[in-house]
Amino acid sequence: MVENPGVGIIMEKVTLLLVDDESDFRRTLAKRLIKRGINAIQAASGEECLKIIKNDPVDVVVLDVKMPGMDGIETLHQIKKEYPEIEVIMLTGHATTQDGVDGIKTGAFDYLSKPIELEHLLGKVRQAHEKRARETEKQKEADFRAKMEQQMIDTERLAALGTLAAGVAHEINNPLAIIRESAGWMISILKRDELAGMPRKADFEMALDKIETGVERARRITHQLLGSVKQTDSTLSEVDLKELLEETVIFIRKEANNREIEIIQEIDPRIGLLWTDPYKLRQVLINILTNAIHATGPGGSIMITFALVGNGVEFTIQDTGQGIPREHLKKIFEPFFSTKPPGEGTGLGLFVTRSIIDKLGGKIDVESNLGQGTHFYIRLPRHPDVAVDLNER
Amino acid sequence: MIRIPTRVLLVDDEKDFVEMLSLRLQEAGEKVSAAYSGKECLDVLEENSIDVVVLDIRMPGMDGMETLGEIRKRFPLVEVIMLTGHGSTETAIEGMRLGAFDYLMKPADFEDLTAKLQGARKRKDEQEERIRQAEAKLLMRKSGGAF
Q1: Taking the complete model, does pTM exceed 0.95, yes or no?
Q2: CATH architecture type of domain A10-116
């Protein structure tokens, strides 16, 4: 720590709010503080002080105890209640140290007795400011750690869920095949000439048809699940992103046209090649684009952007659809989370998407505003094995 | 015209599946045999003429890929369609590199299966026809030289 009461550099960014009803004293002190490089602003009362804090960020408050109206201790209470991060130095009258002690008990950083010496005040302000800086730093660190821990928990939970789901899917495929062949066999028997006049034949056919539809639905789910986990042998190659985008758009163009949705493409001409798995990446883009189409009404638009960022590329897909409610945003990457009616969505699209992006060494993020649309960001490194810090903007 | 049935051999350790698919294929007019392991599959091929083997990749003991290798070695004209229960198609594609005609994912679509059976049967017929023609040519040349 630099112990230099000569101050100057370290104090330059401090915003200090001086609160005192004695205007001469206040103005003189403020002038002297400004001369020493501190951004000193003034308030004549406790009420004015709170109003200023509400609108502008303040680092340190120097607060007179004795004021008409809301007094210093009450003002201190209010400040600490709403803005615990602001440090307060109390100014007490000569020989009334009790006020200062009360102030410290309420959460003030320290107190000074009037008449005050400028150097003494500057020293206290600097200490208060340093304490504040330390605490902000600590808070940031704690937030960051909490976020990382949450991310790890999420990732682990998704991985565990995925493994379990894939195991179940695999085991279910065999009995599913048995059901399918049994129903199919009965259907073909019913087609025999000798059964043309069978009583209630139509009922049997109808029920068998339902079995087939049900099997098909279950089959879609198991295949998607297995597809999400079995990716160890994905094949990497150099992919021309411009071609990939064109191919992808061909897949979804028709559906977009049917729903009168405009597809806008923006690609950085320098985007070049990317080492990745073209099939998986295309699957990811199609998944997100299909969701975007389903969420967007006629006359809406979907914007696809391929841009260069740092040591990789960023794909963004932005729709003008209905948006995703905040309470759903956390869940959209979980397996089996779907807002579509039963049978229409498997709830696996984004789950699969996320596990693919993870395996390709990338990152996927989503932002959404209800009624305005949703914005997906995907970042991929130039090569999946190159560890790129994709958090850096 | 009378359709000549394809002689199909179903190989899978799931007995119920083999049984039901056999019934269904028989109903569709094919001639079906069944085997419940890779080894049994080779035994059946030894004793019977088979056009197409429908072969599950995942089986205990001798698995699908190993069985495929043996079939290619010992019965090179028999066509093989791989059945995979995985979401992964890589093994099946590897099987095709080794000579399998095609693959299907379980549970397979029956129309797909019959189409692929026909394709496999056609490839086998054509190959056998070419062999017959080559043999005929050889015979002609030999007898021509006898004059």
Answers
A1: no
A2: 3-Layer(aba) Sandwich (3.40)
